[in-house]
Design a protein that fits this description.
about 280 residues, globular
Length: about 280
Amino acid sequence: MSNIVIVFDFDKTIIDCDSDNWLIDELGFTDLFNHLLPTMPWNSVMDRMMMEFHSHGITIQEIEKVLHRVPIHPRIIPAIKSAYALGCDLRIVSDANMFYIETILKHLGIKECFSEINSNPGYVNQEGRVRISPYHDFNKTSHGCTNPCPPNMCKGLIIDRIQNTVSEVDNKRFIYLGDGAGDYCPILRFRERDFVMPRKNFPVWDLICKDPSLVKAEIHGWSDGQEFEQVLMKLINKIMIEENAKFISTDCMLQSLSTSTPVFEFETLPKALSVRP
């Protein structure tokens, strides 16, 4: 096990769409969804849509088949499998829901790569209908965050909990990947020794561009699945080399290393991206 914790958003990060919109559009309920959306919170709308699916005779199996077809860049799965094989601790923090995420990850064969999934509760009840509820019950109390977080989830608070459960002795270093406005709050939680990977020209990127100095971690943007894989693997290599170097004394390095036989061979990681408005 390495000392690297990688936290992924799900929609438009691991998969290349919004899973709610994908399911609604594919099943032909877009007009009803657009009619209901202004009248209630997002999670309530999605729970209502699940009731509509059920009342129209759409089965769980049919819903799963639609979720199995979500678009995903072909390099995303190899990147996740490689990070897992290198001993990284992979986690998900997403404003989708557990039913979608677990259904899709199982189909892709990568669910076991993740040690933890944090998302809105989603499950199949005894009637065979999917129920969806908010991660944070904002009807009872606010999560209190002043960043652009939705009322049902502050990802920053989830990251606080994850960081607090990691022993300082373990010297963990974080990489965070996301695209949405809700990913801005957790990005502010990371330190200089950590890395964040915002998706370029998406809401989180725009928020960072307003004042990049607020982000302490190194910023490395990405545009698509190929760049997702390239940047992620370079950051993992960079951390591993830096951490391994701490355990090698100068004398040992002089005795065992030669210029003709390097211990590590990898493409040099470019400097952290300069983010400007």
